[in-house]
User: Which sequence fits this backbone?
């Protein structure tokens, strides 16, 4: 039977792994969780916070809707632009480069205003012109009539915000895809071509699967960035979390409690997504 000194040594040995685990914990996460617990306690016990949270919760769905739709469209457009950036065709390459440099050089808020108040009317005018052309040619009369009758009011500000975020983020995502494609050894393309594959077949079946796996973590980080930038659509009156917070605080003058709650909602979503991206990075590094 161990004596008291041996039992103390055994206890220290058992406590050491736990101490190491505590030392490896992300302290930023613990601090964030502490702040979240304090705010949750305030929401649960303070009548003002409870009322504010009830007013803002409807904006979460709008925020997630704008983010998910815009990001999905940006992924598709960004992948096409990324493929264009590695194309050997000079026309395709330079056209994609021009688009990317212009979009990356314009602040997202300015782009949002431009698409909402300049691009949207121009798009409607283009649709009207196509509708009139179809009518004159007696083609697709039903579609032509609906295109001719389309007005700017048919394109609501939520759709305009989604279009702006899509066009802006596609430029950034395209560079992620380009870097991922160029990170794959050139010999793999040559080997695929030597087996009789065309360029696009080799890109589809050999290069892209590996490149996309490598760029998943930065794509996840850009999704988090878009979630935060989706708050910009509030300047167009879209009733997301930020806009609802602005409306409530301006009517009650409870700015401190309202924007505490707004910040907490965004922080909760971004921290959860950040943990998901970290898990993804560890999973991918383990698989590789």
Assistant:
């Amino acid at each position: 039977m161990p004596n008291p000194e041996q039992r103390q040594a055994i206890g220290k040995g058992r406590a050491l792994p736990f101490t190491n685990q505590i030392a490896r914990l992300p302290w930023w996460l613990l601090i964030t969780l502490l702040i979240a617990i304090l705010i949750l306690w305030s929401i649960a016990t303070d009548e003002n916070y409870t009322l504010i949270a009830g007013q803002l919760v409807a904006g979460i769905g709008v925020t997630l809707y704008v983010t998910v739709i815009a990001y999905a469209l940006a992924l598709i457009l960004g992948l096409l632009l990324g493929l264009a950036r590695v194309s050997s065709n000079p026309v395709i390459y330079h056209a994609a480069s021009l688009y990317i440099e212009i979009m990356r050089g314009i602040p997202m808020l300015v782009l949002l205003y431009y698409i909402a108040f300049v691009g949207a009317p121009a798009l409607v005018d283009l649709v009207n012109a196509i509708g009139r052309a179809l009518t004159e040619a007696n083609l697709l009369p039903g579609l032509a009539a609906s295109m001719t009758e389309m007005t700017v009011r048919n394109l609501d500000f939520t759709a305009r915000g989604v279009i702006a975020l899509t066009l802006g983020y596609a430029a950034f995502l395209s560079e992620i895809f380009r870097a991922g494609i160029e990170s794959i050894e050139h010999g793999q393309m040559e080997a695929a071509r030597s087996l009789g594959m065309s360029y696009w077949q080799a890109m589809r079946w050999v290069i892209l699967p590996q490149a996309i796996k490598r760029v998943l973590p930065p794509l996840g980080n850009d999704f988090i960035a878009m979630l935060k930038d989706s708050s910009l659509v509030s300047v167009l009156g879209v009733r997301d979390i930020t806009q609802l917070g602005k409306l409530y605080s301006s009517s009650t003058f409870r700015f401190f409690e309202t924007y505490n709650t707004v910040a907490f909602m965004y922080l909760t979503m971004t921290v959860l997504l950040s943990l998901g991206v970290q898990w993804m990075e560890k999973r991918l590094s383990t698989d590789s």
Summary: The chain has a mean pLDDT of 87. The chain is about 85% helix and 0% strand.
